[in-house]
Structure formats: structure tokens, C-alpha cells
Amino acid sequence: MYLLFQPGGREGLPPRRLSQQHQQLCKAMAPKKAKKRIEGANSNVFSMFEQAQIQEFKEAFTIMDQNRDGFIDKADLRDTFAALGRLNVKNEEIDEMIKEAPGPINFTVFLTMFGEKLKGADPEETILNAFKVFDPEGKGLKSAYIKEMLMTQGERFSQEEIDQMFAAFPPDMSGNLDYKNLVHVITHGEEKD
Predict the structure, then answer these.
(1) Are 119 and 38 in contact (CB under 8 A)?
(2) If DSSP codes are grouped into helix, strand and coil, which group holds residue 179?
(3) Alpha helices, DSSP H only, in 29-178?
(4) Residue 30: which of 141, 133, 122 has the closest Cα?
(5) Around Cβ 5, how many Cβ atoms within 10 Å?
(6) Structural domains in the chain?
(7) Is the pTM value of this prediction over 0.70?
(8) What are phi and psi of 87, to 5 degrees?
(9) d(CA 42, CA 53)
(10) Closest CA to 149 of 100, 89, 98, 85
């Protein structure tokens, strides 16, 4: 399941306000506080995260648990991929994700899996992988598509917020957003040289 957030077109979405689903999946993935808590955590998975982070993971789990049976299964993963715009996910890919879990994926297992993956995770790499779900071939993200997603999904951006983002990170000649530079600024506070 964590493969939704790994290279090769199997990532989640960038944090912020793409949609509630995307925000919940990604927002909790890279906070530095979570990394620090995980490093010193005891065996109780719930002690690895702050309460707000656990709530965000719970919301992400609930969104992914499409059939509301308390477990994430192959059908739930396929539906999640479809919601992310990936309709042609191979069965092998989904099987690989399910095999990552030690058994049926309830919320505790889900939280444990993310806790283990976050341990030592690089926030910049995690966010880059999230953007790559929209760019599996590495050709770039069309700014028009990003604008549409930000203005129509979840906590929607206003036109002013969109204008500010594109003023700070203008699209290239092909109309693509330089999301690598955007991620660098998000994680480091300054542009790449």
C-alpha cells in the first residue's frame, strides 16, 4: 500500500489542498515531528504519532476503505487508484502492495506500515513521489491540470491563490509546472541553484 507513495507512478498526491482525500493521504506523511517521534517511539504504534496525525491517517484510511468493512483490500486499492486517476493498475501491482502487510489491513496495520516507512523518510523525496503520481513518465505536469485539481478538489484554492502560486513558480514554455523546484522550496524554504 505504501507503494502509492513510491517512485514509478505509484505515489500519492502532493500535500496541501488538492482534495480532502489527497490531503489526508499526504499531509501526514512527511512532518518532521512524526519522524522524531518515530525514532524514539516504543512498540505502541499509536505513540509514534501525535493525535492530530493519527486522525489524519484515520481519515485517509476511511477514504481508502471504500466498502467500509474496516479493512483495505484489493478492491479498495483499485478504487483508490481510480480516484487518483490511474485506471489501468495491474493486478500484480496491487498484489505487491497487499503483500507488504503482515495480514489483513485494518487501521492499526495501516498506521504501523506508515510508521515504519516514515522512519528515516526524506520529506523532499516523499513529496516528489507524491507529485509523480501525475507524472509517471517524467514528462512534467501541465499547469492547467494542476490548476483544475487545486480549484475543484477538497479545500479549493481561490483564483488569487492559484495566481500567487504560478507567479512564484511559472510554467515553462510547454505549460508544465516545475514541481521539483516547488517541492524543494516547500521542504527547504529556498529555490534550487
Answers:
(1) yes
(2) helix
(3) 32-39, 51-64, 74-83, 91-99, 107-118, 123-131, 143-152, 159-168
(4) 122
(5) 24
(6) 2-188 (1.10.238.10)
(7) no
(8) -95, -15
(9) 17
(10) 85
The continuous run of DSSP H or E covering 141 comes out as strand 141-142
Whole-number Å distance between alpha carbons of 52 and 63: 17
Write out the three cell numbers for 145: 491540470
Whether 27 has a pLDDT exceeding 70, the answer reads: no
- Residue 141 CA to residue 14 CA, distance in Å, equals 12
* Whole-angstrom distance, CA of residue 184 vs CA of residue 175: 20
Grid cell for residue 170: 511559472
CA distance 41 to 6: 24
Nearby residues of 62 by Cβ (< 8 Å), 6 or more positions away: none
Distance set, CA 22 to CA 143, 157, 189 (Å): 18, 14, 23
Write out pLDDT tens, residues 47-86: 878 888 899 889 989 999 989 999 999 999 999 888 877 8
Question: Cell 474496516 appears where?
Answer: 70
Distance CA 24, CA 3 (A): 16
| Residue with the three cell numbers 513521489 | 129
Angstrom distances, CA of residue 188 to CA of 51, 133, 152, 178: 26, 22, 28, 16
Rounded Cα distance, 37 and 26, in Å: 18
